[in-house]
Amino acid sequence: MNAFRLPVGPPSAERADAARNREHLLKVAREMISESGVRRLTMDALAERAQLGKGTVFRRFGSRAGIFAALLDDADRTFQQQVLYGPPPLGPGADVTARLVAYGRARIEFLLEHHAIERAALDRNQQVTIAAGGMSTTHIRMLLGQARREGLLHTADIDSLAMQLAAALEGPFVMYLAPEENATAGPARRAVALADSWESLVEQVLKVQ
Amino acid sequence: MNAFRLPVGPPSAERADAARNREHLLKVAREMISESGVRRLTMDALAERAQLGKGTVFRRFGSRAGIFAALLDDADRTFQQQVLYGPPPLGPGADVTARLVAYGRARIEFLLEHHAIERAALDRNQQVTIAAGGMSTTHIRMLLGQARREGLLHTADIDSLAMQLAAALEGPFVMYLAPEENATAGPARRAVALADSWESLVEQVLKVQ
Known about the structure:
The structure is a homodimer of 209-residue chains. With 209 residues, chain A is mostly helical. The first copy, chain A, has helices at 10-36, 43-50, 54-61, 64-85, 96-121, 135-149, 158-176, 189-205. Chain A has eight helices and no strands. Chain A starts with 9 loop residues before the first helix and ends with a helix. The relative contact order of chain A is 0.09. The interface between A and B is large, with 39 and 40 residues. Chains A, B: One of its GO terms (molecular function) is transcription cis-regulatory region binding. Chains A, B: InterPro entries: Homeodomain-like_sf, HTH-type_TetR-like_transc_reg, HTH_TetR.
């Protein structure tokens, strides 16, 4: 596929190759995970299945944990796009209570689906970086600000409340659930229960009539 | 102090010695932390200050992280005693809303005070064991059950709600606050704000008139 290159010079061509390899590797990695979970996904197995050299896999991801970190980064970006620009109620356009409920439900589904990958993305010497980035805190804070402007909330300190609600949402996956409760396969009952519980928590905080 | 031992045989005497050494070492460790924080507390420094051999410190705690784990275990036990048997509203005897508020306030203070020790108690290859044990989930679940019996709460699934409220309480310290916001010295403003926010969250959940 490298014939007929346009004369853009070696750096760009190299970059395009790298990006293509990365996409291809991530796609193959996703296939392997959906077939047999995260355990079987090693650098060697990925290189073989993707029909690329081990050196290429190493250059792209650095380590086995790096593969999972890249997968997670990719998934996180997609999730953010849906929240910021996707259809309502997750995206803009629905009323604030519906958006807060939808965000929680979508986030719980995301956390459930990606928990095994998040674990695998952790290097030995990293601590508590799961669910980092604080997207939940930022987004919830924005919606609480809107709710306050609309008279649905009379809390002065929405920073603290946003932090606590974000923790209520993500914390059970990070802090309390046993690994087997974080199963990736199928719609786990616990996640459904947590999503329903999130909905009533939101309704109580926002004084829905 | 080893003169006049009663004839209880070597194991018990040895155990009494070990317990006395452990108490003494923990007391000295607490002094060192309150004087100059967790950084200066090493196995060597502790042995020297406690006027005990390095071998004794090693036998008691196994590693530097082991010292902090023992300190935390000790503090956790004291905290639990206050919750289970101490005076109200933290201990039994106050109404359920007051107890839930008091638990949150006391727990936030505890987490703030012990955060540096919790970090230091983590070994490299441990993940997310901070705030483990689930005492908050268990205690909050018990109080929510009482609130439901008293008609203050109409949630069917108090397991999920307990998990989310426990995460709301402990999560900000574990997941979101930057290390400098977790300062051990002085009453941190963030913790005061979180405690106030916890109080109104509890009042909203329990439909306080």
